[in-house]
């Protein structure tokens, strides 16, 4: 059992005090091995009893067990030289993949593949870096022959979601699960009976309330929030999985090859 994955998975079910503990672990997890339960309680404004309950809530026997499991899952973040940088980035991406693999439901991948194949039109909503990931998803699906659009402008999301139908598939991407523009667009899409899928890092975030198919990917900030490395990598890993399952269909694979040849010969 991966402690950080479990903390992320049920984060929105924590009380305010429990979230203080979770946030401390996120920000100072590497320091936890050197403090006792009394010090952690002081640092988080909680109590020993609250920390014990938190530990059990995430599947640990007690505080000491939580410390041991966190230590065993922690990626080394020291970067002493250039060789260390290469090693660190490799470890970082490897951990993101492993933890996302832990969180992703395989059956949901097959469900969304089926919905993609049968949708009249596919709309992808996302802003900022999630919008860029949405654009990548759109380009892949376009090359397989699907009628797909990525929308990252908040006003266009509202306009578009108001005219979707039960024949359409809407995919919302929000790592936080709380991007207001995406939430509103998914709510309207759901009211119009479109099939709605969401990609987020938090299992019970607002975006999931309007979703028929839900994907939880690992939040890279739980590994190292102090350095900037692709925050969308876990979503791209999910996109690769969906793409590979789609390409098992010979018709879609043939369409992809046609577009590749068209680009090469242009």
Topology:
Elements (H helix, E strand, L loop, with lengths): L2 H7 L6 H13 L8 H8 L3 H10 L5 H11 L8 H22 L2 H13 L3 E4 L3 H15 L4 E4 L2 H8 L7 E5 L6 H12 L3 E6 L12 E4 L16 H14 L3 H16 L1
Parallel strand pairs: 1-2, 1-3, 3-4, 4-5
Helix pairs in contact: 2-3, 6-11, 7-11, 8-11, 9-10
Keywords: DNA-binding, Transcription, Transcription regulation
Organism: Clostridium uliginosum
Pfam families: HTH_6 (PF01418), SIS (PF01380)
Any overview of this molecule?
This protein has 266 residues and is α/β, with parallel strands linked by helices. It folds into two domains: 3-73, Winged helix-like DNA-binding domain superfamily/Winged helix DNA-binding domain (Arc Repressor Mutant, subunit A, Orthogonal Bundle), CATH 1.10.10.10; 101-265, Rossmann fold, CATH 3.40.50. The chain is built from twelve helices and five strands. Helix 2 crosses helix 3 (37-44), helix 7 (106-118) packs across helix 11 and helix 9 (154-161) packs parallel to helix 10 (180-191). It is globular and about 65 Å long.
Q: Which descriptors apply to this entry?
A:
carbohydrate derivative binding, alpha/beta, DNA-binding, DNA-binding transcriptional regulator, MurR/RpiR family, contains HTH and SIS domains, DNA-binding transcription factor activity, Arc Repressor Mutant, subunit A, SIS_dom, globular, 2 domains, five-stranded parallel β-sheet, Rossmann fold, 266 residues
Task: Provide a brief overview of the structure.
This protein is 56% helix and 9% strand. With 266 residues, the protein is α/β, with parallel strands linked by helices. It has two domains: 71 residues, Arc Repressor Mutant, subunit A (Orthogonal Bundle); 165 residues, Glucose-6-phosphate isomerase like protein, domain 1 (Rossmann fold), CATH 3.40.50.
């Amino acid at each position: 059992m991966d402690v950080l994955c479990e903390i992320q998975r049920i984060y929105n079910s924590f009380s305010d005090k429990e979230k203080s503990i979770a946030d401390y672990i996120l920000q100072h997890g590497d320091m936890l091995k050197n403090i006792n339960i009394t010090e952690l309680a002081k640092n988080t404004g909680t109590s020993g009893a609250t920390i014990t309950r938190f530990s059990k809530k995430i599947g640990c026997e007690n505080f000491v067990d939580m410390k041991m499991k966190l230590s065993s899952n922690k990626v080394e973040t020291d970067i002493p030289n250039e060789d260390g940088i290469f090693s660190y980035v490799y470890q970082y991406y490897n951990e993101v993949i492993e933890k996302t693999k832990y969180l992703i439901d395989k059956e949901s991948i097959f469900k969304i593949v089926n919905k993609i194949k049968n949708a009249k039109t596919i709309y992808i909503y996302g802003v900022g870096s999630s919008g860029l990931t949405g654009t990548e998803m759109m380009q892949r699906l376009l090359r397989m022959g699907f009628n797909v659009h990525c929308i990252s402008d908040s006003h266009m999301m509202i306009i578009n979601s108001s005219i979707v139908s039960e024949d359409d598939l809407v995919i919302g991407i929000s790592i936080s699960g709380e991007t207001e523009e995406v939430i509103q667009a998914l709510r309207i899409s759901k009211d119009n009976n479109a099939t709605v899928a969401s990609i987020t890092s938090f299992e019970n975030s607002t975006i999931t309330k309007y979703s028929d198919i839900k994907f939880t990917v690992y939040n890279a900030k739980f590994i190292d929030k102090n350095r900037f490395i692709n925050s969308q990598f876990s979503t791209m890993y999910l996109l690769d999985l969906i793409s590979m399952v789609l390409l098992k269909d010979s018709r879609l694979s043939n369409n992809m090859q046609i577009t590749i040849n068209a680009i090469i010969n242009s």
